[in-house]
Each structure stands twice: as structure tokens, then as C-alpha cells.
Amino acid sequence: MPSHPAFATIRPIADPGQVFAPLRADLQWSHHADRARWVVHDPLNCQFYSFNELECSAVRLLDGRRTANEIVEHLKRAFPALAIDARWLSGLVARLRVSHLLQLRTQADLHHAVRASARRQLPGWLAQVLSPLAIRVPLLNPTRLLNALSPLAWLLFHPVWLCAWLIAGCVLGFFVLRQVLSAGLTASIDWHWLRGDSWWWLLISYLVAKSLHELGHGLACVRFGARCRELGVMFLCLAPCLYCDTSDSWKLPSKWQRAAIAGAGIAVEWMLATLAAGVWLMTSDGTLHSVAASMMIVCSVGTLLINSNPLLKYDGYYLLSDVWGVPNLSEQSSDAVRALWVSFLSGRPLVHSHLDAHVWPLALYWMMATIYRTIVLCAILWIGWSVLVPLGLGCYSLGRWGPRGPP
Q: What pLDDT was estimated at residue 351?
């Protein structure tokens, strides 16, 4: 999914007479008119950075001639209601410098920026060590493949077609739920089928669903005119499935198009869950019936609790970030909590001019997300201990690793 890194928090010493270097000329700008934001694409490291109206006005004044005091006075006249001083400007420039967005004066600066970008992306072996449950292996540029599938993309994400899938899913889901409640969950789904050598059908259902989920993001990019730069294999818990890099969706000016790309995988899984529900209702027992039950569980319960939930940093998070108009939602919510604590402990007025929403809703989101992520982590640990061992999957649970974690 789209990546959108936040600037590091830096508090330098302000110097009103300092002259700052201008921004690099090769940066690519995109305007989001719906929230008066500008997104910058850095071609050196293929990262995206978001600027609000105040920050954009400040960086456009960095011409290598104006002093910090002159820039601050100009910003105060343009934004009289905001607290702006030389320290704030110095902090913004320091974040630009750390991200290597300022003009590179010498060839040595260019080499340093390239090396820093390479370190930020991490070598393959280090990425595997730090992210052993989500290892990405790039394979190809999917532009030709996705262009060939553009008619399918147009059909899948047409509003009428999406409404038809939504209605069909709700109707079939009602009949599935009624049958499960009338017959009892244990009678409707043969959980013993997952024991022994047949449990891997559940894993296959998961991998197929997640691969089509990622392909859905790529098709949505084609549908709305964004570029999908990379297609590869992601190893989730050492199990392979597809992934698509849709970072270029940040260039789209419409938040609804960006939100549609973020939610495309959820829509694809809803379609799979609808098809699986129909198969499950038409069959009574056997492998096909159990596979359909597995697909329903993966594409409905799993998507609802994890992937579409905005409290976790998956598709629902990016969808809410686009619709709400708050890039880097997780980082901004943390900044909001920090600003509240600083104001409470110091007695100083609350300063949150860099936030894209009111501080209290952002702080509430941070609290809800922290609580929910803790609950999910505890639930995963409990499932690993209580469910996987009885199902004969001890090598994937805490039962084999023990209370101290993996060997």
C-alpha cells in the first residue's frame, strides 16, 4: 500500500539571521485541492512527503537569500492566527535537511543523499531480519500486465457493479448467518477438517485471497490513472503471496480516488467472500464446502477485524487518512497527544499548527488505536497458545517457541 513517511521530530536552536538553502529543483509536486495540501515525490528514494498550506508557503520562501527572520515575518502576515517563529522554521528546515529535500550544493552532497536513501530502504538481508513476517521480493514492473487487464479494472470498480456486489454479499451473508445460528456453529463448520494434513487448505485460501487483494490495488491504480511501480512476492509468515506498490496514488488530486485505491483490496475480498458464501450455501459437506467456509472466514471476519479496521495500519487506516485528509495519521495523532501533554504539564497554550485536524479527535484516535492494537496482539498470542497447538500446528505457535519467543 501507499507509503507516506513522516518527518523526524527535531528541535534545533533558532537563528533569526540564518539563510537556508532552497529546495531541490528535481522534486515533483502534486496539489491536493480538496485539503489545500501539496505532495512532493523525491525521485532519489521514491518517497512521498506531504506539506500543508503553511509548510508549503514556508518552503517556497526558501530561496537562498531570505533570512529566517524575513521568512517568519512574511508568514506571520500571511497566517496571523498561527504561532510562527524562527524555531518553528528552523525545525521545518531541519526536517527537510534530514530527508535530503534541500538543494544539493556539491557532488559529495549528492553521493551522501544517495547513500542515505539506500540506508533508508535497507539492504535485503537486513530487511528480512527486521521484518521476518513480511519479506518483500520485487519481481517485475506490472505496467503491461495491468494495462492488459484495464477492461477488468473498469468493470470491477464501476459504481453499479460495486453496488451489486454489496447487495449480493449482504443477502448471502444473511442466509449464511441464519443457517449458522439455526444449526450451531460447530455443526455448520466442521472444525475437525482443519486437523491433520488438511489444514493447509485454509492457508491456500488465505494466500489466494491476499494475492487477489493486492492485485485489486494494482487494478484500481489503472482504473484511476495512477502508476503501479512494482509487483512482487511477499512472504507473510514465510508463506508467499503477491504485493503491489501503489505509492504513486499519492499524486492523484482527488481524495476519493486515493481512498478507492486504498479500499480496492477490501472490495476484492468482499467479492470473494460473496462467491464463497454462495458456494457454501449450495453445498452441504466435503472439501469444497470446507474451502468455501475457509474463504468466507478469511475474506469477511479477517478483513473486518484487521484489514479494513482504521485502528490498524492497513487498508482501512489509509482509507481513513485519505477521507479525513490527515496524511501520516499515526504520526500526527502521536504529535497531538504529545502537544496535549506538553501544554498540560507546562501550563503553556496548546500549539498544534502543524496538525491537519483538531488535536482532540487526533488524540482520541491515538488512544483507540493503541488500545485496539494491544488487544489484537494479546489475541494473536492467545490464539497461538490455545488454538494452533490442538490443531497440530505447534511449530507455528507459542507452544513450540515457549514463553520467551522464537529461538
A: 65
Rounded to whole angstroms, the Cα distance separating 128 from 123 reads 9
User: In this structure, are residues 217 and 231 in contact, taking their beta carbons and an 8 Å threshold?
Assistant: no
Query: What percentage of the chain exceeds 90 in pLDDT?
Result: 12
Contact between 279 and 292 (Cβ < 8 Å):
yes
Give me the residues paired with residue 41 across strands.
28, 48
Q: Contacts from 101-107 at CB under 8 Å and sequence distance 24+?
A: 101/23, 101/24, 101/27, 101/40, 101/42, 101/49, 102/20, 102/21, 102/22, 102/23, 102/24, 102/62, 103/21, 103/22, 103/23, 103/24, 103/25, 103/64, 104/24, 105/21
Instruction: For the sheet with 134-140, list strands across it.
Output: 134-140, 230-236, 239-245
**Nearest alpha carbon to residue 268 among 324, 327, 216:** 216
Alpha helices per DSSP H over 81-231:
86-98, 107-121, 124-130, 143-148, 150-156, 159-183, 185-188, 200-224
pLDDT tens readout for residues 230-288: 888 777 555 676 778 888 888 888 888 888 999 999 999 999 999 999 999 998 877 78
Provide the whole-model pTM: 0.71
| CA separation for the pair 245, 215 (Å, rounded) | 10
Q: What is the pLDDT of residue 378?
A: 82
Rounded to whole angstroms, the Cα distance separating 89 from 72 reads: 7
Q: Pick from 240, 244, 236: which is nearest to 213 by CA?
A: 244
- Structure-model confidence comparison of residues 119 and 301, the more confident one: 301
Looking at the predicted structure, is the pLDDT value of residue 359 above 80?
Answer: yes
Q: Give pLDDT, residue 180.
A: 81
CA atoms within 13 A of residue 8's CA, in its CB half-sphere: 11
- The DSSP H or E segment spanning 48 is strand 47-51
Closest CA to 242 of 273, 206, 277: 206
Q: What is the mean pLDDT of the chain?
A: 76
